[in-house]
User: What shape does this take?
Amino acid sequence: MKTNIIIAGVGGQGILTIASIIDLAAMKQGLYMKQAEVHGMSQRGGAVESHLRISDKEIFSDLIPKGEADIILAIEPMEALRYLPFLSPEGVIVTATEPYINIPNYPEPETIINEIKKYRHVLVDAELLARQAGNLKTFNTVMLGSAARYLGIEMEALKLAITTYFSAKGEETVKVNLEAFQLGTEC
Amino acid sequence: MNPQLLLGAEAIALAAIDAGISGVYAYPGTPSTEITEYIQQSSVAQQKGIHSTWATNEKTAYEAALGMSYAGKRSLVCMKHVGLNVAADAFINSAVTGVHGGLVIVVADDPSMHSSQNEQDSRVYGKFALLPVIEPSNQQETYDAVHYAFDLSEEVELPVLLRITTRLSHSRSVVTQKAPRAENPFNPSNDKRKWILLPVNARINYARLLEKQALLIKISEASFLNKQVEGKGRKAVIAFGIGYNYVMEIRETNQLDFPVLKISHYPLPDQTIKAFTEKYEDILIVEEGYPVYEELLNGYFGNRKFRGRLDGALPRTGELSPDLLAKAMGVAGNTERAIPSVVAGRPPMLCQGCSHRDVFDELNAVFETYSVKHVFSDIGCYTLAALPPFSGLNTCVDMGASITMAKGAADAGLHPSVAVIGDSTFTHSGITGLLDAVNDHSPVTIIISDNSTTAMTGGQQSAGTGKIHNICKGVGVEEAHIRTIIPLKKNAETNQAILKEEMEYKGVSVIIAQRECVQTASRKRKATTK
Assistant: This one.
């Protein structure tokens, strides 16, 4: 198996949390992985992405070749489209629908959603589901849940990774995140 | 030992701890910052008492690392590529002295300039200093290479340069640890001829450094970091550092079988290179950075055998990618979708509530009363004020240049001549320039936008916190012209009046715009509520 994932968002939205959880799960399953991150200047409210590659064979490139991403997992809809050159012909866009507007020329959110609909897609009202789970901060975990079935990693491994990742923050945090993950998978 | 998921930068840090360093010295700079941060946060490093506090700049860092080596201990020094320009004096001369305890200098280059003002290739510095250079290709190799580099440094009694680039530094993969090695005993060198670079000694040392080159090549021939991937055909690839990853990605995905020579240890293994290049007719040279070795192999009159960044097979600038390699190797790339036109650019920007915002709003307002506006600025978050809506500065060149360029422009007749510099950049390289301005009574206004941290790289300790006023006073700025303002909307009127007053003053004035970085302040608040 081999899964190429682009995780996209805006600096400060915490896309690396999602990556870290997938990493933990993949490691637990004994898979090879590489995860390229963006640090530095772009983190100041700019567009950020992470290239995450999981495989049962050795991975050479830290970067995903264009046209080879199986999933674009975006926590912001316009950011999902920014990485379209990476999406494979059969690839899927899994994105939160809530726009993050920190620029004066942000396009009409509806235009963005219509554009996403031209491709294989899963649209997630992550804010609503995070509230349902009991904490708005579980936004990213909802998104992870929505992408889970495309990752090539077992659900149980992902749940275990969530438990491990949030365990330092207490039982309640683990519980709401598992709930958020579950709600995400139902999208 | 359990495998761990580590950034390339973190793999270096962990390896250095395991290789028995007694200290790391560094000034923050993307993409090198995480190395030192990892050591600062490591409980093992804390228990061992490994020195890890930040240095004021890369030169002080390098010299302290050299001092630790003089005392017999192993030391690590880390910086971004442009930091090596600052440390170059110490670096080049330390090749002439040589080292006692192992010294490894990690330099993180930034091809494509993700967070930098140029994409200089530190391997050139390695050649210039006549030192061994290690350029690993992946995270595990990086971990192993650090152990190897420390042993090598002690074997040949020279500093070893470990060169990485952004992509390796900021990418995670699984790393397995080796058994840790004990720190070296305290054992200062007594060899004065080695360390006193009077010409009489330096000539001898330099001759010895030249003599060592044959040994360095011999070691490189046997290095585990240089290897060949067997293959068929008349075409071949020589891949350097992480260029190897992209070459192998394309080779494996497309089931190609061309031979590959991977080089991650310099000076070049002469015999291996000669034998390999004689065997093939068409050789693609893949370097993540300048075409340093492509140029060398081509020779002055050129050799049509080699392709690479010089003949356009690969672009002359920027970092490599699997897509660029596919093209260079004549493999049809994937069909690539275009980014829809609806997608707007989202450049980085100053945080909401950031003190630099108020500084530039106020400065822009004062400049409305002047017909000419020239603001000399510097390296840091505030450089983002170059972008709209502020469009508030005219220059950003190198650490500390704001003050000295403002001075030079004032000497040429510019008035007002204003510099804006951050607190950490000021202590890094601004103080000496301020002394020049004081000694010349130059009519300059220096705004030190003091947020009490090194913000752009993630909020590291800033060397001058709480000391800025006294530093300026000590350098000789008249106390009446060292003004402190709190950059907040409610103070805008008062602050503008102070700015105007000092801009009108025909001498050196310093305005310290003091308000803590919103990021570090919010982190502190969270820590106290826990």
